[in-house]
Amino acid sequence: LTVLGKAHEFFQICDLEGKGFITHQDMQRLHPELPLSLEELEKVFVTLDADGNGSLTPKEFTTGFSEFGKHVSCIELYSYSIYSPQGETACPLKCEETVSDDEDEEFQFSNLMDRLGAKKVLDDESDVKQLWLQLRKDEPHLLSNFEEFLVRIFSQLQEADNEKNELECALKKKIAAYDEEIQHLYEEMEQQIKKEKEQFLLKDTERFHSYSQELECKLLSKEQELEQLVQKQKRLEQQCTELLSGKEETKAENTKLKLTNQELLRDLERTSHELSLAQQQLQVLQEEASRLHEEKEMEVYRVTETLQREKSGLL
């Protein structure tokens, strides 16, 4: 009945709008109310959603959550009912224990943890101890179930720890074998490198001798080329000397040509002046000839006119 009441209360917390059903997002509103993560709430929703339609009715939620709480989250629901205000009103605490009772509980819990081997698995036993003490005080009939649950959990954890140790040993053996193989390969590689280095040095020596002979041949050829270049330089120097002497002669000839050119320029200026005078005289003569030609034409015209009048008179 407590689980059904809590389920109904949880449904009302999720369905604040009064839709009559809740979705994935509505289910996340229980995150502050329950000691469950969002992923665990999502798993609870998927478990309760039997038809897979993505929503939960009050009947599906209440029935499924009660069945789910029996075998999955009874501890979380019980812890919630204990620490909620309603849990405080519905399940009042017993009277205060004496100092001897506290010591006895401490001793029993310590024996339980020693028997389960929890110290090898858990670093902090405070949460388990608090839940165990609360069950011992309020719900002693559930304490045996809780201890059986712890036995199964710690046995599985111990098995997992043993498997982890075995895997660590196997891993260490593999690492040792791997290191030995790497060392063997490293030694073989060093031998191979040493052998190849010796072969390389031998080849390098032979190549050095052949390269030295080749360089000597190239040096002789370069010396011959240098001798040819020296002779060619001498010939070029001789040609330069000849060109310099020819340049002096050319310079003298250029001076003579320059003087001749100046004389020719003076003759050209004088001839141009004379030509200009001749053109002026020719222009005067042309004008005089034109005038005479006009006068002659006028004379011919007068003579022709006189002859014409005389011819008319005779007629």
From TrEMBL:
Top-level taxon:
Eukaryota
- What's a Gene Ontology MF term here? calcium ion binding
Name any one Pfam family assigned in the record. Answer: EF-hand_7
EF-hand domain residues:
36-71
Spell out the coiled coil positions from the record.
Answer: 150-295
* UniProt keyword list: Calcium, Coiled coil, Metal-binding
**Gene3D superfamilies the record matches:** EF-hand (1.10.238.10)
Q: Which InterPro entries match?
A: EF-hand-dom_pair, EF_Hand_1_Ca_BS, EF_hand_dom
The protein depicted here goes by the name EFC4B protein
The organism encoding this protein is: Fregata magnificens (Magnificent frigatebird)
